[in-house]
Design goal:
- This protein has 396 residues and is mainly alpha-helical.
- Among the domains are: 78 residues, no CATH class; 94 residues.
- The protein has 19 helices and two strands.
- The protein has a two-stranded antiparallel ribbon.
- Helix 13 runs antiparallel to helix 14.
- The longest helix is centred in the first third of the chain and has 32 residues.
- The chain is elongated.
- It starts with a helix and ends in a 10-residue tail after the last helix.
Length: 396
C-alpha cells in the first residue's frame, strides 16, 4: 500500500513536470466549466491538481470498500477445496495444527518459487529428520543476506552431530553480531530463537557455558533448566569446569543477585556436590532458610555443618531460632536430635523420637535408635535412605 501511494505521487509529479515544460512561455491556460448551475473559472494547473486528488480519493474509497466487502463475504463463504485458499491461509492452517512435519510437502511447494527461503526450509526439514548431511548441502545454496538464519540452522546441525565447540563458537558470534537491517522488524523473535539455541546447548552440554566469552542471560525458568542439567552431569565435570563454576557461583553470592528460591537451592546443591561448604556457603544456606523454610536446605546445612569445625552450641542456637520462626516442623526435630546426640543429651534426644509419628525422617531415627546395637543394620538403613528418590544425598 505504501509503495503504491509513493508510485502514484511520483507519477503525478512527473505529469506536472511535463505540464510545466509544455506551458513554458505560454501560461497555464484558461478553463471555464458550467454544470447544473455551477460555474468554475480557473486554469489547467488547478484542474490537473483537482483531477489527481479526485482520482486518489476514488481509488482509496474503492480499495476500502473492496476490502470490507471481501471480509464480509469470507464470513459466509465455505471453501470447497484447500487449494482455493490463499497460500498464506494454507500456511496458517498448517501452523495452527502444528502440522509442519505431516504437511512438509505442502510447505515446500508453497515456497518453491522463493529463492530466499526455499533452501532454508528444505534444510530445516532435513535437520528435523536427522539428515544433517543433506541439510549442509542445502545451506551451501544460501545467499549472504540470510546468513543469520543459516547460522541458526548450522547450530542445530552442530548440536545434532555433538560438535559442541562449533555450536558454541557460532552462538557467540551471533550474540555479538549486529542484526541485519532487514531483520530488525522481527528482532524479538530472532532473539528468542537465539536464546533457545543457548538453552539447548546448556541442556546437552551444560559445562560448556562457562567456556563462553559472552554467557547468555537466561530467564528464571531457563536458568533452572541449565542448573538442573549441571546437577545431573556434575560427575562429568572436569577440575577446570568445577573451578569455573565455583568462581561463577561465588561471584553471584558476592554480587547479592536476586534469584529465584529454586534456583538458589540448586546452586547450593551444586556447591556442596563439589565439597565446598565454607562459612560463605553456610551463610548462604541460612539466608535461604530465613526467607522460607525448606527442609531440603536444612538437611544440607545440617549434614555439612556437623562435619565442619563449628561450635555445636552455635548450631543449637540456630536451630532453636528456626523453631521459633517455623514451629511444628519435623525437619527441625530431626536436626535437633542430631545436635542433642553430639552434645550427649540422650534423654532430650529420646524424647524427640516420640514426635511426628508420620514423618519419614523421624521414622528413620526411631528405627536407627532401635537398631543401634547392630552396626551392619544401621549401615543398611543408611544405604536405603541414600538411594531414595532424593536428588541430593547426605550421610547423617
Amino acid at each position: 500500500m505504501r509503495n503504491q501511494i509513493i508510485s502514484y505521487l511520483c507519477l503525478c509529479a512527473l505529469l506536472l513536470a511535463v505540464f510545466f515544460i509544455l506551458s513554458f512561455n505560454s501560461g497555464f491556460g484558461y478553463v471555464y466549466v458550467q454544470w447544473l448551475g455551477w460555474q468554475v473559472q480557473s486554469n489547467m494547473l488547478v484542474m490537473l491538481l483537482a483531477l489527481f486528488v479526485c482520482v486518489a480519493v476514488v481509488v482509496m474509497l474503492w480499495r476500502f470498500l473492496r476490502k470490507v466487502l471481501r471480509r464480509k463475504m469470507q464470513k459466509y463463504t465455505v471453501p470447497k477445496s484447500f487449494r482455493e485458499l490463499h497460500p498464506y491461509e494454507r500456511m496458517g492452517i498448517v501452523w495452527l495444527l502444528h502440522g509442519e512435519r505431516a504437511e512438509q510437502e505442502k510447505i515446500i511447494a508453497t515456497y518453491q518459487e522463493s529463492t530466499l527461503l526455499y533452501s532454508l526450509i528444505q534444510a530445516k526439514f532435513c535437520i528435523a529428520q536427522g539428515q544433517t548431511e543433506q541439510a549442509k548441502q542445502w545451506l551451501k545454496q544460501i545467499q549472504n543476506p540470510l546468513f543469520e538464519l543459516a547460522e541458526l540452522l548450522k547450530i542445530d546441525i552442530a548440536l545434532a552431530e555433538k560438535r559442541y565447540a562449533e555450536a558454541l563458537d557460532r552462538l557467540e558470534f551471533l550474540t555479538v553480531q549486529p542484526l541485519s537491517t532487514w531483520l530488525k522488524p522481527v528482532e524479538a523473535a530472532y532473539q528468542i530463537e537465539l536464546q533457545e539455541k543457548w538453552l539447548l546447548l546448556s541442556q546437552t552440554c551444560p559445562w560448556w557455558i562457562f567456556k563462553a566469552s559472552h554467557q547468555p542471560q537466561f530467564q528464571c525458568e531457563q536458568q533452572q533448566v541449565w542448573l538442573h542439567a549441571l546437577l545431573a552431569q556434575s560427575e562429568q565435570a572436569s577440575d577446570e569446569e568445577q573451578r569455573l563454576f565455583l568462581d561463577w557461583a561465588r561471584q553471584r553470592l558476592n554480587d547479592g543477585a536476586q534469584s529465584d528460591i529454586q534456583e538458589n537451592i540448586i546452586l547450593l546443591k551444586l556447591m556442596c556436590q563439589f565439597h565446598v561448604f565454607d562459612a560463605e556457603t553456610a551463610q548462604f544456606a541460612q539466608q535461604l532458610l530465613a526467607q522460607r523454610f525448606i527442609p531440603e536446605v536444612l538437611y544440607i546445612w545440617l549434614d555439612k555443618s556437623l562435619n565442619q569445625p563449628v561450635d555445636i552450641q552455635v548450631l543449637d542456637a540456630q536451630v532453636q531460632n528456626w523453631k521459633v520462626q517455623y514451629p511444628a516442623q519435623p525437619s527441625l526435630s530431626f536436626a535437633q536430635w542430631h545436635i542433642d546426640q553430639r552434645q550427649h543429651k540422650f534423654a532430650e534426644a529420646d524424647a524427640l523420637l516420640n514426635q511426628f509419628p508420620d514423618d519419614a525422617y523421624m521414622a528413620y531415627l526411631r528405627i536407627q535408635n532401635t537398631l543401634q546395637a547392630s552396626e551392619m543394620l544401621q549401615h543398611d538403613l543408611k544405604v536405603l535412605l541414600h538411594y531414595s528418590k532424593q536428588d541430593f544425598k547426605f550421610d547423617l
